[in-house]
Protein 1
Amino acid sequence: MTIYNFSAGPAVLPKEVLKKAQAEFLDYANTGMSVMELSHRSKAFDDIIKGAEETLRDLMQIPDNYKVLFLQGGASTQFSMLPLNMAKGKKAYYVVAGSWGKKAYTEALKLSKTIPFEPICLASSEADAFDHIPLFEADSIDPNAAYVHLTTNNTIEGTSIYDLPDTNGVPIVADMSSNILAVDYQVSDFAMIYAGAQKNIGPAGLTIVIVREDFLNDKPALSSMLDYRIQADNDSLYNTPPTFSIYMAKLVFEHVQSLGGVAKMAELNRHKSGLLYDFIDQSAFYSNPVKNEGDRSVANIPFVTPSAALDQQFYQEADAAGFKNLKGHRSVGGMRASLYNAFPLEGVEALIAFMKAFEDKHRLG
């Protein structure tokens, strides 16, 4: 039985990358050691981390005045690091368009009780179960604010921001965890981008931070480990980094490059997600909760059947048929198909065939 992994993260990785890592697992580059055994100060690992950065810079066309950091702690650690480093004494705006944006804002509120800054919810769609990207007026933003934080893709709710909003000249910071390398954004439009690796980049344990040099903090943060300036000045080697995850990221970057880069991945993702959206739209049995078609994510596609009981039966039967991790997030229920870069087109086609058969079997009336 063929297995298709629809997990929202940790997620499917390219088979070609896994095979290469397998071949090099016991002996990397004739060192006689596994990558996991290499010193992070060694020449072999220096080549890995520099190669990873160089390839990522090429893929995303990262300007020279941006630093690329390889950090630990997941994207959620950036919820704290960002205001700790960048917002002292200023306002910081948050667009709350999904569960992760809400968590970022909630963390900022918590920090504001001990750190002098003012987190402001600029716009929220929580009252509508995050079924759309909320809008706001640019002139409602203080031009002296530290940043506007947004989440480019809402993994749980299946919405995305493709065209960046007018922020009245205030720098944009983006959590790009679930659609980095999947949508062709211009890095220069952001002051900072951060992304957990476990969706489009590699295994869990690594976070990518891309930050404009003039946006970096001038004053030290409370902790050296949580200080962007210190991490940048030490080329992500202030302490032992997640070496194996960085190696895997390098392999993924090279793989994406071999396929034609981010623009090609974006084209493939639009095609894959378009097939599934088209099927759902023409069905009277399935529905997608996203209100506006232009807000639909190409990475995470939630859908439901006519009842919660049928939803449960669907993902149980799907799991038995080899369609793994389709159960929706516990906060929203239903199903969710995560179609990241490494997810194959044939998996989407197979899922649609399964959905059609399930509909034919259970269609009401």
Note: The chain has nine helices and 13 strands.
Protein 2
Amino acid sequence: MIVSTINVNGIRAAVKERSPLNRGVLPWLASTTADVICLQETRADDGQLTAALAPALDDGWRLASAEPHIKGRSGVAVLSRHPISASRLLESDEFGGHGRYLEVDTAGVTVASVYVQTGEAETDRQLEKERFMAELAARMATLTDREAVVCGDWNIAHTENDIKNWKGNLKKSGFLPGERQWLTELLASGWVDVVRELHPDQPGPYAWWSWRGRAFDNDAGWRIDYQLATKALAERAVAARVERAEAYALRWSDHAPVTVEYRSREMIGRS
């Protein structure tokens, strides 16, 4: 099973052909080998999302989505080549309808798409982010007894290897000590950062770069897009990569897809 996650930075913008070189997200969907794809920041209601992804849905992809509660913000979805037998939102009075978390059962596993909001140190926005983080961790604690993976844009760089300019971001949301400790505790509770497990002790691989300046060309990025898998699923992970565009002009999002290959249970039994 191959799982990809990508913050599309607005699905309606991502599907547009922005130039002769940039054909948008639809050609990527047509060519990807992924079985399941988690999308974040769709910024579209269910009707708009279905319309934008119509060619992919016509090709056989199944779709589950959680639309944003505020127009033009958040929104998550899961695409699967396999039937989706169930879908669930975050059970939260505050965040359940925000379009920041959606989990589905498909292909014999539980796959969740999550979008953790951008915070701002020492503001109400940061407090809101931290409240969401607490409720997300509580939900994830109920999934550790199954094969599950939570994919998405976490808006937190965990270690110095996960952000190019870590010295310049020590006091900024996304690299605050409390946020990083929260991820440390999440990993200690039984979750595995699959990409880091397969790419230990090295900078990156980054999956987000600012549109501004030469951040992309200089690979001055952040690794904030994770696939956190339960131990039962993580032991099946054999390869992970960031599908970085070959050139700035070919980007259809400020993020790049993060793709992990999980071998089948049958292959594990034969190994």
Note: Residues 193 and 228 are 5 Å apart (CA to CA).
Protein 3
Amino acid sequence: MDAALEAEIQQKYTVETITDMKRWTDKLISFRLTRPAGFRFAAGQFARLGLPLENGGQAWRAYSMCSAEYDEFLEFYSIVVPEGQFSSRLARLQPGAEVMLDKRAMGFFQAERLPDGEDLWLIATGTGIAPYLSILKQPEVWQRFERIVLAHCVREAAELSFQDEIAALREHPLWREHGRKLQYLPVVTRNAPEGMLSQRVPALLQSGELAARAGIEMSPEHSRFMLCGNPKMVEDTHRQLMKMGYRMTRQNAPGHIVLENGW
């Protein structure tokens, strides 16, 4: 390898190996990478992953970590875009293939940015559930809040990935005494199974149906919200919450909402 190229690699990114690839549907995959010893991140942050292109260039995309801060691997969840420059190539890879990993984790989508409250609402569409899987592996999150609601909105029921993993979170030995606090609310907007929530999240907030299904009364005094996923959902949900009296958390002004809109 050219010495200059090797120096660039060592400075900006590492080359990691896929150790596991899971195909949830024909459009959804999750995968694990080896984790370099020096890589650090806070639950809720994302990493930039890269693949070489046939023309000699590189394609990079941002993915939130699903794995815990303390895991020995890095796990990610991705939608597969047909003919996409990155994800369609990624989906064809098998364990043993290599992916570039930017050395720096990025983002400020962290539960620590919210002031204390009684209820933490983790609202996601599609692959936006990924950072919550990492956040829910932090013992302090379970200790800070009395109730935690994970609402995952998808189009088809087959897209409700990680259900077994979510159920297992309640029994994790690091916070088993708090496991009862977690409530999982799946939302399916097309052909929803009987009894399942089936409207978009902003509509469920406006009607009060989301709170009613959780059995929790929302209020600015007690409720805190994290929003992640489709930019339209994030924008519309943010607007609806503002109408209900909630406000964004700012650097010097703690509020009720933090969001991730980096798609």
Note: Residues 84 and 90 are 10 Å apart (CA to CA).
Protein 4
Amino acid sequence: MGVLDGGRVELRHLRAFEAVARLQSFTHAADELTITQPALSRTIQQLEDALGVTLLDRSSRRVEMTPAGRTFFDHVERVLAELERGVDAVRRQASIRLGFSWLLPDPWAQDTVARFERATGTTVSLIRTDDALAAVQQGRVDIAVVRGQVTSTAVRVVHLFNESRVAVCSVHSRLARMSQLDWAEVPQWPLVVNVSSGTTGPWSWPAGEGPQTVVETSNFDEWIESVAADRGIGVIPDVAVRRNIHPGVRFIALRGAPQSEVSLAFLPRARNAELRRFVEAAVTSAAECGV
């Protein structure tokens, strides 16, 4: 809003006055508030017009408060401090619901959560769900880690990094004696597929070149138990190698496999400032982790 209606004083006017009075400089205050100096001068003038007094003496090289300005400054400091305490109290109660269908990538997930919580005071609630993408669309989580290509236009997708793949089989499988497997050889084996959130399935090969036998499961637990029972082999991101997911399976190096995308998905209409800060933390962590 340009000119104040009816002498209304807004929060932006208080912040502008506090910064100029504290720093005794329009230039330094404009830099701190990330606004232009002319815009800051207009904001201070609006405040003085609304109050009907001069708050700042601009006659010398250094900006100084008038007697009225010093009186007002004491009250403004208390108001802004109390507001900050209120914001901090609310943020401590707030949370971002992060959905995931199975193992979170490491160390990215741990770094992202720690970075975000330190910077904002907002808690990240981790919510395990069989279909993380559906959970976002249904509003059961605010944002989700999703693997593989996302074709839905109902969500916004931010790509983070790619994961390498490995094969996984039962300890009783003939494959367990092999040191590595070629991607082109995978279709020769029955393939166990998680149809809800799996990253590898018949769709991973050109038409007619995928596995002839497919064992479908609907979540990660069913998938890993089916592999352990030697109903077929699976293909999984290599994060699983670093985690003890099941004593009845063995991992096999997979040569020539395409990498799997890891992204964040959230509703495009979300205007939550904390959600945007979480995405920023996630992207920064992905870059620093080198994943």
Note: Residues 1-5 have pLDDT under 50 and may be disordered.
